[in-house]
Amino acid sequence: FVDIGTNHAILPIAVLREQRAMRCIGIDKSASAPEDAQRRLRRCHALDRVELRIGDGLEPPTPDEVDTICIAGVGPRTVAAILTDGLQLMKEQEVRLVLNPFGGSAETRTFLAEHGFALLADTEVMDRGRTYTILVAQRGASRLERQL
What we know:
Strand order of the largest sheet: 3-2-1-4-5-7-6
Order of helices and strands: EHEHEEHHEHEE
Number of helices: 5
Low-confidence stretches: none
Number of strands: 7
Structural class: alpha/beta
Mean pLDDT: 90
Largest sheet: 7 strands, mixed
Helix content: 25-40%
Distance between the termini: 18 Å
Shape: globular
């Protein structure tokens, strides 16, 4: 599980707690993010299962390290830019995407369709009075399979 823009590593910790992955990679372009995240990982006893990296988008991981990629809390143009830069990484193996484009999802949906990704799930979640769109996509999948 790769969390792009991990910041404090909250999502990788939640993924591990829910036993959705055995190992996570948290990537952030901020040089200070790994320090904050390491303190949280230490408190949660997850230092040995979350690797923190400084990098921009999908630049740091290699294909053999990735099966699920999460990009959340950034605008749809940023989501598309990160995915465009990572297309080669995703061509080498089947990768599931979990996306939360902030401020609208139409552009992200268009990008996915144009690049051969099918939606597996498409749902809206309410949190603290805000609505968030969650898209799950994968290349080669044939249809919208289920709601989250």
